[in-house]
Design goal:
The chain is mostly helical. Helix content is 69%, strand content 3%. A two-stranded antiparallel ribbon has the order 1-2. Helix 6 packs parallel to helix 10 and helix 7 runs antiparallel to helix 10. The radius of gyration is 21 Å and the shape is elongated. Pfam families: FCD (PF07729), GntR (PF00392).
């Protein structure tokens, strides 16, 4: 184990065991270096790594603090590594996404208000009206993000946003088959939004799962296995 790894795991252990709690300032460098048996350079590198993961927060002129450790913030740091996945890895993630999108859709169907429903259908109308693939992709993301938000679990909403961000690197709607794929996607959105508006969790879950599965099939059928192209929702 390198000195940086030793410092990283040492700090992680302090936080994971509760010795350093959310919002607490970590001990001075000298104390930590002596306790962990590492140099200041190794400790600082470990701090940078943990900061990138959203676990600690360096504050200029004040010191370094443990973050609030909100699950959604820590989950969001997955984007740092998920962006590296090749298409084959992304397709494995889709199995997880199918399950989670179905769950949040069911929750949204149970919780939605008329205002939430209006928002969903407004986003669908905007998606159908635009001919710009980039704008359509952004509206698509907002549609699914709204469902996840209404579902009521910020951590799940963040995790699904990370999954969708990686998926959007692959722009199937710009392919020759794109217009037909978009029509199918828009139809799926209306089925899903209608199930949510009807407060039907079973139908909403089924519609969400089918929609994600369809996107997965498109990626398998149309995307090259290695070269990045650019995504649907």
């Amino acid at each position: 184990m390198s000195a940086v790894e030793k410092a990283f795991h040492g700090l992680r252990h302090m936080i994971g065991t509760g010795r350093l709690g959310p919002g607490e300032r970590i001990p001075p460098e000298g104390e930590l270096c002596e306790e962990l048996g590492v140099s200041r350079g190794s400790l600082r590198e470990a701090v940078r790594m943990l900061a990138a993961l959203g676990v600690i927060e360096p504050r200029h002129g004040s010191g370094t603090y443990v973050s609030q450790l909100r699950p959604e913030d820590v989950i969001g740091s997955l984007s740092l590594t998920l962006e590296l996945l090749p298409l084959s890895g992304l397709l494995e993630v889709y199995e997880i996404r199918r399950v989670l999108e179905a769950h949040v859709a069911a929750q949204a169907a149970a919780r939605c208000t008329p205002e939430n429903v209006d928002t969903l259908f407004s986003l669908i109308d905007a998606m159908e009206a635009t001919s710009d693939p980039t704008e359509a992709s952004e509206l698509d993301h907002r549609f699914h993000a709204e469902i996840a938000r209404v579902g009521g679990n910020p951590t799940l909403a963040t995790l699904l946003a990370v999954f969708r961000a990686r998926s959007r690197k692959y722009q199937v709607f710009t392919l020759p088959e794109g217009p037909e794929l978009r029509r199918k996607s828009d139809d799926d959105h209306r089925v899903l939004a209608t199930a949510i508006a009807d407060h039907d969790p079973v139908a909403a879950a089924g519609a969400a799962q089918a929609h994600v599965a369809q996107t997965e099939r498109w990626l398998r059928a149309f995307m090259p296995p290695v070269e990045e192209v650019g995504a649907t929702d």
